[in-house]
Write a structure and sequence with these properties.
- The longest helix has 45 residues.
- The two termini are 72 Å apart.
- A 4-stranded antiparallel sheet has the order 12-5-16-15. It has a 4-stranded antiparallel sheet with strand order 7-6-11-10.
- The chain has 724 residues and is of the alpha+beta class.
- Among the domains are: 28 residues; 130 residues, no CATH class; 155 residues, no CATH class; 164 residues, no CATH class.
């Protein structure tokens, strides 16, 4: 009987070929299949490290997923307890926040703060108001999964333990700022109320950039790599080479003031009178003036005649013998007598009986009157005028009083002109918008069916439209949101849009969100308005998404930014020399630079450190921005308000592009006057609290930065932001 080896010898060539093919398949094809389900292809690089810990790609992905699971768990148990899940303070699901939580938890542990299982159970009881049963918890946990893998109760508790440890440390940090110290309140008050007048000499940093040695190609490339993913920020001291989202648009402006000026000429006296008659009961009622009421004169109460017993007693006074305890008079209230003394004063609290009039039932009223004969009640009603029912015939309602037409005529005329102007603008914008909408649709059809011989529809000429309809036209280049706001008032405009989920069914949406937001279409007409009543109609003609340019493309920008950073030391040195010269010669800055052509002096002020809009006192105060200064920051303001008159200082502006020589001329008002005003306003601390919020936020950011430095936090790649 032939063995298996005979079979191999017979087909050895074919089998060897087959084995070779299998080997090739195993070498080239098998690894990808083995790596399916692992996004990192067997390689799990380190993403971020810190003292005592690290995250690799797989680890940070799971940590973010577990935070999402914790949020889902908290939402579901809150819903089971009858709470609204949409109103819950959940954890941010981003890599940066997950890593920050790990640092906070590590710092909490280093400070002896631990979170036990019982503490987690107490937190869950408070979160659910103790309204969720254990079996409900089990059911909710059983539904939690990361992909196909179920989440165990142990994993969930460990994630909660880390989150609560970080939260407890944050609460401890915030507790240190509860109740602003008086010194802080005084400092905030001075920042809002005290004004400074200064003379300054600006040293422009970029003008000194030619004096620094040119950087090498390697230095520039390293500088580019460091900031290539950062967006440029106007007030930041570090550059950003990533290009922001930019759009190009055309727009029309209907000037409200001009249209109202035209409309007010057409408002007739008859229209004013008709509006007055129609709305006087709701808009023009005269305010009732209540005359001051004089206090009633004091009545001379007659002294009652003493009774026989009192006369006898007065005629024969006998000294009262001291007794250990006085008997309670028969006329005393038994209920009051039974009341125990309050505290240790021996005083009996006074009781004021009351009757529930609004909910008194007829039976109760009858029972109350049983103690008093009906005849006595009737006699009492006759003698007490307040008890007699009012005669409806004698009550006369005062006729309503209205403001005279002459007093409100101009107000009505302005209102009618505003309504007519808006109606005219609405009519005009409706017609123009319809034309723009047709062009948008024609352009979309042309793009969909475009061939070599088709011609694009003609774009609307906004200048011609404006000229024909008495509007103003505007055009933009490719601009970022910040540039759009700075270029034209349309950047700050808004529109009211339907929103069924809001309280009033509408919400205010900014023009920036409409034109730069996701889903904003090219050539779609957009209407908006500003706070002055001006109206806008615009279309987006070009959209350039955010992107990172190559080094070669951005080289000029990189070189310029590097030179500015490198020149800051020269600028400060130059400023120090000027102020030192002024101090040594006891001259003003104006006298010091009088004969120099490369710099000039400017007097600025008066200005306060912080500014706050009285109409928006709930909003935080902001740094004042005097028109003669370029982006002054905290460093500049701190330098100014730490000086005495005629003293000098040197400070950069916020982005450190200008170094200022500063000489204080005056501070007003004086400290004594400020202290008096501070004491007068001590009951109104809300606006000072808004200032404190800014300082607390800055302190928290500085604290977190110190924590990251102490734990040597090091990201090996940029942290990923959800949705980006």
């Amino acid at each position: 009987m032939a063995g298996s080896f005979d079979f191999f010898r017979k087909y050895q060539r074919s089998l060897l070929v087959f084995v070779a093919i299998l080997a090739m398949l195993a070498f080239f094809v098998l690894p990808p299949f083995l790596q399916m389900g692992n996004d990192y292809g067997g390689d799990d690089p380190t993403v971020v490290t810190w003292t005592g810990g690290e995250f690799r790609e797989g680890g940070i992905e799971r940590a973010v997923a577990m935070r999402s699971i914790v949020n889902r768990f908290l939402m579901e148990i809150a819903a089971a307890a009858g709470r609204d899940p949409n109103q819950l303070p959940l954890f941010a699901e981003s890599e940066e926040e997950v890593v920050r939580t790990r640092l906070l938890a590590a710092e909490a542990k280093a400070n002896g703060m631990t979170v036990s299982d019982s503490a987690i159970n107490d937190f869950l009881s408070q979160w659910t108001n103790n309204l969720v049963r254990p079996e409900q918890f089990d059911e909710i946990i059983a539904r939690l999964r990361i992909g196909p893998t179920a989440v165990s109760q142990h994993d969930l508790f460990e994630s909660l333990r880390i989150e609560l440890a970080a939260r407890n440390l944050l609460i401890l940090f915030q507790t240190g700022f509860s109740g602003d110290p008086p010194g802080w309140r005084w400092d905030y008050f001075c920042r809002l109320e005290q004004s400074a007048t200064v003379e300054v000499v600006p040293i422009i940093v970029e003008q000194l950039s030619t004096e620094v040695e040119a950087p090498s190609e390697q230095t520039l490339r390293a500088f580019y790599e460091k900031y290539k993913e950062d967006l440029p920020t106007a007030r930041s001291i570090t550059p950003g080479f990533r290009e922001p989202h930019r759009v190009k648009y055309d727009f029309l402006i209907a000037n409200a003031e001009a249209y109202q000026a035209d409309a007010i000429k057409a408002v007739t006296a008859e229209q004013v009178a008709a509006y007055y008659e129609k709305n006087k009961t709701t808009l023009f009622r005269a305010q009732a003036v209540t005359p001051p009421v004089d206090p009633p004169p004091a009545e001379d109460k007659p002294t009652p005649e003493p009774t026989t017993s009192e006369k006898t007693t007065s005629e024969k006074p006998t000294p009262e013998k001291p007794t250990a305890e006085k008997p309670i008079p028969e006329t005393a209230d038994p209920a009051r007598s039974a009341e125990p003394p309050a505290d240790d004063q021996g005083a009996v609290p006074t009781r004021h009986p009351f009757t529930k009039v609004a909910f008194k039932q007829p039976a109760a009223a009858e029972s109350e009157n049983k103690a008093e004969p009906a005849a006595a009640v009737e006699e009492k009603d006759k003698t007490d005028p307040a008890a007699l029912p009012a005669d409806p015939a004698t009550l006369k309602e005062e006729p309503p009083q209205f403001e005279p037409l002459a007093a409100v005529e101009e107000k009505i005329r302005t209102q009618l002109a505003r309504e007519q102007a808006n109606a005219r603008i609405d009519e005009m914008f409706t017609a123009v918008r319809a034309d723009l909408q047709r062009y948008s649709e024609d352009h979309a059809l042309w793009q969909a069916r475009r061939t070599a011989d088709t011609v694009a529809p003609k774009a609307p000429d906004f200048d011609e439209i404006a000229k024909a309809r008495g509007l103003e036209a505007g055009h933009s280049k490719l601009v970022s949101p910040d540039e759009a706001v700075a270029a034209s008032p349309i950047g700050g405009s808004f529109e009211f849009v339907p929103d069924p989920g809001s309280r009033f069914g509408i919400r205010q949406q900014s023009w920036l969100d409409t034109i730069y937001g996701s889903g904003a279409l090219l050539l779609r007409p957009i209407t908006s308005r500003d706070v002055k009543g001006n109206r806008y109609l615009s279309i987006k003609t070009e959209d350039q998404p955010e992107f990172t340019p190559s080094f070669e493309t951005a080289r000029e920008t990189v070189d310029r930014a590097w030179r500015i950073v490198a020149s800051r030391g020269l600028a400060r040195k130059r400023a120090d020399q000027l102020t030192a010269e002024a101090d040594s010669k006891k001259l003003s800055l104006e006298e010091t630079v009088a004969k120099r052509s490369d710099v000039k002096v400017t007097q600025v002020g008066p200005f306060t450190w912080l500014s706050q809009n009285d109409a928006a006192a709930e909003r935080p105060a902001v740094l004042s921005q005097p028109s003669d200064l370029f982006m002054p920051g905290e460093e500049f303001m701190r330098a100014v308000f730490s000086l005495e008159p005629n003293q000098t200082a040197v400070a950069f502006n916020a982005p450190q592009t200008v170094c200022y020589c500063i000489r204080l001329l005056s501070l007003a008002p004086e400290i004594s006057t400020l202290k008096e005003k501070f004491l007068e306003d001590r009951g109104q601390q809300r606006r000072l609290a808004t200032v404190a919020q800014g300082d607390i936020s800055n302190s928290f950011r500085a604290w977190m930065k110190g924590l990251e430095d102490r734990y040597r936090l090091d990201w090996k790649r940029q942290s990923q932001v959800p949705g980006r």
